[in-house]
Amino acid sequence: MDLVKFDGMNLAKAQISEMVKKAFDAAIASGELSQTEAMRDFTVEIPRDLRNGDFSTNAAMVNSKPFRSNPRAIATALLGNMNFEGTFFDRAELAGPGFINFFLNKSYFETVVKAVLTNGDDYGKTNYGAGKRYNVEFVSANPTGPMHLGNARGGALGDILAECLTWSGYDVTREFLINDAGNQIEKFGLSLEARYMQLFDADYPFDEKFYQGADIIARAEEFKEIHGDEYVTKPLDERKQALIDYALPRNIADMKKHLEKYRIDYDVWFSEQAMRDRGDVDKAIEKLTANGYTYEKDGALWYKGTALGEEKDEVLVRANGISTYFAADIAYHYDKLVTRGFEKAIDIWGADHHGHVARMKTAMQALGIDPSRLDVVLMQLVKLIGDAKDENGNVIYGEDGKPKKTEIRMSKRTGKAIALVDLLDEIPIDAARFFFNTREPNSHLIFDLDLAIRENSENPVYYVQYAHARICSILRALEKEGLTYTGIDGVDFSLLKETEEIELIRTLSYMPGEIIAAGKSYDPSKITKYSVTLATAFHRFYSACRVKGEDERLSRARLALCVATRHAVANCLKIMNITIPNQM
């Protein structure tokens, strides 16, 4: 068996599917089952209680109607025609109203450990994606001010999702859309212009709709340091553009610097302004017009969204001749899916953009693009909490002996709303990347700042890192005693049969499938959860099974299992781009 890019869990599921289909064919051929309709698709799952079997299928239950028989009778016929030869299974049993439970044989567990050791630093990688080109666009914050907590979550989510897809065999491009055109840049310029003029005239008007942040004042002051009052007497539009030309590149540079600190490396920084300058927005609008999805009204050009089921139509080009953000967004996705030819465009947006999802999908349809090629991951809000403290700074404890918690809204450093850079000054980057992926994207996330900096097993990222460091420490100690891992040759993996050994190996076997599932469902929290489960399985194994014992063959098998687990834990941390410590 080829152990390279081995995916034990999905291979076992595939074997069950094949066995069941062949058993149906055999039972039909023998007359035990009579088919009146096409066979229904069935699932193969891992039962919650593994005492009932390692895998279970509902094949008999979902096919009761096509075979006009009760599920238990169908299951009995299937079991009588089941051939386990050449598979990872040695038996199957009928359960409940018609489930069929399958039990793994020893060869499965031996093969899993060999596969992990053979693949080493690449264990978990598969060819599932078959090299399909996926574009993952995330963060894409407006360059008009600092990135915030939502961007912090979106950054970790997008980056780890992209890595899961890469490990699953997709050709992935990480992309940041620079919103450097449109209304927000006009507003940015007017805000800068007003703050600059206030440095010379305190009564200069500042519209309440302008950007209010201290960062706008800071950029205006920097501009004054360089140019003094040179622009005070110039026309407003010239002054405004000069301030934009100064501040915008610096804001973008800061965004890149802060995201690099967060360990996010984009393949593409895509400029909206450059796209507009190339005429791509006009071309997309022309395509919509040619397809019959635009019309003119009140001097503006409209997108006929209602023709595709939308509640209302949208303006593409205003009466003043300026195209809207919606038009630019349509052109941007046309560029991704047609011009650059990505198989799939995955966007990660805040939940407040939920109303824009259907509009974008129907716009793709209007362009002649299969709307299923655009997927949007909606991300819920983050709530920061920390230990409650009294007026003297002492932690307040509850009756359960645990610290009481309170919501944190402001940065200790600036006294303002917490920005990404503030957060990265407060807590380790490892903790930020891990904690922001502990829940599904569509779930609200509670981020405990004090837990994130705690160096004990209560902190999940510390717990997983400690598992790796502990294995390294064990291997160093064993090496001093003359026991070292030299390869799979000569190791008798059949000796690994204790409950804790089997459960650890079973957990190792899930890893490639968990990575694939994380990519398919756009939910990288599956990897953070899996890494904790793996660390727990190892700690249980090591507490129950002594590696260095009287039986040298068993010691070598357990040593190999330790090495295999070290690879798997390290690869989980690698996917999350979290530090992999050899000692703690």
Notes on the protein architecture:
The protein has 19 helices and 15 strands. Strands 7-6-5-11-12 form a five-stranded parallel β-sheet, with helices on both faces. A four-stranded antiparallel β-sheet has the order 1-2-4-3. Strands 8-9-10 form a three-stranded antiparallel β-sheet. Helix 10 crosses helix 11. The radius of gyration is 29 Å and the shape is globular. The chain starts with 7 loop residues before the first helix and ends in a 9-residue tail after the last helix.
Helices, strands, pairings?
Elements: H1 8-29, E1 44-45, E2 55-57, H2 59-62, H3 71-80, E3 89-95, E4 99-104, H4 106-119, E5 133-137, H5 149-167, E6 171-178, H6 183-198, H7 214-227, H8 236-261, E7 268-271, H9 272-277, H10 280-290, E8 294-297, E9 300-303, E10 314-317, H11 325-339, E11 344-350, H12 354-366, E12 374-379, E13 382-387, E14 405-407, H13 420-426, H14 429-435, E15 445-448, H15 449-452, H16 460-480, H17 499-520, H18 525-544, H19 552-575
Parallel strand pairs: 5-6, 5-11, 6-7, 11-12, 13-15
Antiparallel strand pairs: 1-2, 2-4, 3-4, 8-9, 9-10, 13-14
| Percent helix range | 40-55%
Strand order of the largest sheet: 7-6-5-11-12
Radius of gyration (Å): 29 Å
Strand content: 5-15%
E-strand count:
15
Biggest sheet statistics = 5 strands, parallel
Terminal CA distance reads 38 Å
